[in-house]
Design brief:
CATH topology of one domain: Beta-lactamase Inhibitory Protein, Chain:B, domain 1
Helix content: 25-40%
Distance between the termini: 82 Å
Keywords: Cell outer membrane, Lipoprotein, Membrane, Palmitate, Signal
CATH architecture of one domain: 2-Layer Sandwich
Structural class: alpha+beta
Radius of gyration: 27 Å
Organism: Snodgrassella alvi
Largest sheet: 5 strands, antiparallel
Subcellular location: Cell outer membrane
Shape: rod-shaped
Low-confidence stretches: 114-126
CATH class of one domain: Alpha Beta
Strand content: 25-35%
Number of strands: 5
Number of helices: 6
GO molecular function, one term: protein-macromolecule adaptor activity
Oligomer: single chain
Mean pLDDT: 79
InterPro entries: BamE, BamE-like, BamE_dom
Length: about 130
């Protein structure tokens, strides 16, 4: 009878150590997730009206979204997230005419300002 109580006590103590509240306090590594096409500011600034679809695709890569209902519209999206929280999100929408030439581009990837290079970095490279 004492063996049963001892085994029961050990089981209860062992199972109580596996509570989810204690597991949630343990820090775990959260993977950085990068999705979409990286929209480099220099590449986005090099887009010119009149460029063909092939030229745009060579610069930016395959668009993330090609809407079958709007064949003349390409959508690019770039997202960096960690632990289910978005750290960076950039969007770019390109519009083409019936001949496949770039007409118009819009989105926050165009308005984003390039990051200034510090002089310390320039001195190290020279």
């Amino acid at each position: 009878m004492k063996k049963i109580y001892c085994l029961l006590a050990v089981a209860v103590l062992g199972l109580s150590a596996c509570s989810t509240a204690k597991l949630a306090q343990i820090p775990s590594y959260k993977l950085k997730i990068i999705q979409g096409n990286e929209l480099d500011q220099k590449v986005v600034n090099s887009l010119q009206p009149g460029m063909s679809r092939e030229q745009v695709q060579m610069l930016l890569g395959t668009p993330l979204l090609r809407d079958p209902f709007h064949a003349n519209r390409w959508d690019y999206l770039f997202v960096i997230s960690r632990a289910s929280q978005i750290q960076e999100e950039r969007k770019l929408t390109l519009y083409f005419d019936a001949n496949g030439k770039l007409i118009h581009a819009e989105g926050d990837a165009i308005t984003a300002q390039p990051q200034p290079v510090s002089t310390a970095v320039l001195e190290k490279t020279e």
